[in-house]
Amino acid sequence: MTALSEHVLEEIRELPAKYPQPRSAVMPALDLAQEEAGYLTAEAMSEVAAALKLDPGYVEGVATFYTLFHLQPIGKHRFYVCTNLSCTLRGANEIVEHVKGAIGVHEGGELSKDGLFSYEEVECLGACEYAPVMRLDHRYEKDLTPNKIDSLIAERRSPATPSAVELPHPALRADLPAKRGGEKPKPKPRARKRKSG
Predict the structure, then answer these.
(1) More confident residue, 5 or 178
(2) CA-to-CA distance for 98 and 114, rounded, in angstroms?
(3) If you write DSSP's letter for every residue of 76-118 in order, what string do you get?
(4) Strand, helix or coil at 159?
(5) Is-contact 12 33, C-beta < 8 A?
(6) For residue 172, what are the contacts with CB-CB under 8 A and spacing of at least 6?
(7) Which of the following CATH numbers is that of domain 77-170: 3.40.50.300, 3.30.470.10, 3.30.420.40, 3.40.30.10?
(8) More confident residue, 107 or 188
(9) How many CB atoms lie within 10 A of CB 64?
């Protein structure tokens, strides 16, 4: 029995053609494996290595280097809460404490009793203007409050909740304002230089 489905293995085998170097396909391949299995087992990493025709040690090295890959079970819904300076100044530490209390865990990486949730503090999500911000189910959640956290958890505990849809980073989404509170600022007209003479 294999750790990964034939469908995922086929997707992984097709990845190297999209990159100048076959080794560049390791991260997206590991992401596909983790998406299917929930975390990366030794068997899944070996299957990724075989599908990409790479050394298993190299694949494992990539998986253990990057914190976005998990070698232990994680919650079906994982909160990646930014605790970098901008988010911390706007209340990220309080958000972390609220997330921990709401899902019933004491530290990052711990799995909630129902297996649905876990959280991790991350250094930066590149969306400082929306601080405090986090990523949950491939979506950026911005301007976080305890009430918003409670709503997000309730939605995921509800059996009627549709599965998450992957959306691009907030800065790339056309429906989000460029800055808090409105449209992109209009460029200022350039002042003309006076001729000295």
Answers:
(1) 5
(2) 18
(3) SEEEEEE-SHHHHHTTHHHHHHHHHHHHT-SSTTPPPTTSSEE
(4) coil
(5) yes
(6) none
(7) 3.40.30.10
(8) 107
(9) 12
Burial of 88 (C-beta count, 10 Å sphere; 0-12/13-18/19+): middle
Q: What is the pLDDT of residues 50-108, one digit of tens each?
A: 999 999 999 999 999 887 788 988 888 999 999 999 999 999 999 999 999 999 999 99
**Sheet strand arrangement including 117-122:** 117-122, 77-82, 134-136, 139-141
Architecture of domain 6-65: Orthogonal Bundle (1.10)
Q: What amino acid is encoded at 127 in this protein?
A: A
Report the candidate in 3, 13, 2 with the shortest Cα–Cα distance to residue 51: 13
Q: Where are the domains of the chain?
A: 6-65, 77-170
